[in-house]
Amino acid sequence: MTREEALEANKHGAIAACISGLITIVVVIIALTSDSDGIFSYWRDPLNLIDAVLIFLCAYGMYKNSRTAAVFIFVYFIIARVVIGIESGSFSGLGVSIIFLYFYGKAIQGTFTFHKLQKEADPTYKASPKWMIFVGFPVIAIFVILIGLGLLTMTSMLPSTEVLYQSQIAQSDIDTLKSEGIIFEEDRVEYFYSYGFTSILEGGNLLTSDRVLIYFPNEQDEIVIYEMYFSDISSVEKIQNGGVFSDSLYRINGLRDEEWLLLELSTENQGDTKFVQAINDKIRLP
């Protein structure tokens, strides 16, 4: 690969990244402004716009012949496709993904070739200032760790960060809830959310076919369970709005003043509103 070919490959990689970033923005906007289910529900989160920002930064980096940007977007693109495939249950669009990976792969070759040729022409040439190395690598490492944690929450090795509908709940989590005596063998769980970080046993909320249930460990690490059947619920009220980094809080009021439950629910993909709507639908039944 000549210097001119390397520059061309880097430019094509940057263009591919810009196209990918624009597609991401369009899909997120469509998801946020519609009630579509399926794969669009995964994109119904403003945080997904961070993906677009990252992609555009990598595009600029490849245009400036950055090896780090080329390698990063290649790895990030693969991880993102895997995450979306797991989340949506579909790995469609592999052909298009391969095309993007081709251009990103050529950009990797182009950036490394460019700096190699520059070094050969000028032995004193330095590709990047030291401060970029000391700042860039820790940032990349942190981001990779966060991606890894995100993948673990989607494989049930760590609790999910969103409210799960019955078809999304891992069988291993159901088995754990049963073995710990949190639910009965015959229970059908319709919605489930655990606010635990490393284990669902750190606390959570469930909605079954006949009741709402909360559980958490006490000071002796014993699981404490509180539940309220739909026939005993008078209303549900929101007492705290959730956000990107915090859960919403809802109070379930019983028919008697001294009876109530406090639900902590993730706002991701509007899971909190779906959970509460399901409760309201149950208590309105004759």
Describe the protein.
A hairpin with a 7-residue loop joins strand 6 and strand 7. The longest helix is centred in the first third of the chain and has 30 residues, at 3-32. The protein has 286 residues and is an alpha+beta fold. The chain folds into two domains: 3-154; 164-283, PH-domain like (Roll). The strands form two sheets. A five-stranded antiparallel beta sheet has the order 1-2-3-4-5, covered by helices on one side. It has a three-stranded antiparallel beta sheet with strand order 6-7-8, covered by helices on one side. The chain has helices at 3-32, 39-42, 49-63, 67-88, 94-121, 130-154, 171-179, 271-283; strands at residues 164-165, 189-194, 204-208, 211-217, 223-229, 233-240, 248-254, 260-265.
Short description:
The chain has helices at residues 3-32, 39-42, 49-63, 67-88, 94-121, 130-154, 171-179, 271-283; strands at residues 164-165, 189-194, 204-208, 211-217, 223-229, 233-240, 248-254, 260-265.
Which residue ranges are poorly predicted, with pLDDT under 50 across at least 5 consecutive positions?
none
Tell me the β content: 15-25%
Distance N to C terminus: 75 Å
- Major β-sheet annotation: 5 strands, antiparallel
Number of helices: 8
Radius of gyration: 24 Å
Structural class: alpha+beta
Shape: elongated
Query: Looking across the biggest beta sheet, what order are the strands in?
Result: 1-2-3-4-5
What is the total tally of β strands? 8
How helical, in percent, are the residues? 40-55%
How many structural domains does the protein architecture include? 2
Oligomer: single chain
The SSE order reads HHHHHHEHEEEEEEEH
Mean pLDDT: 83
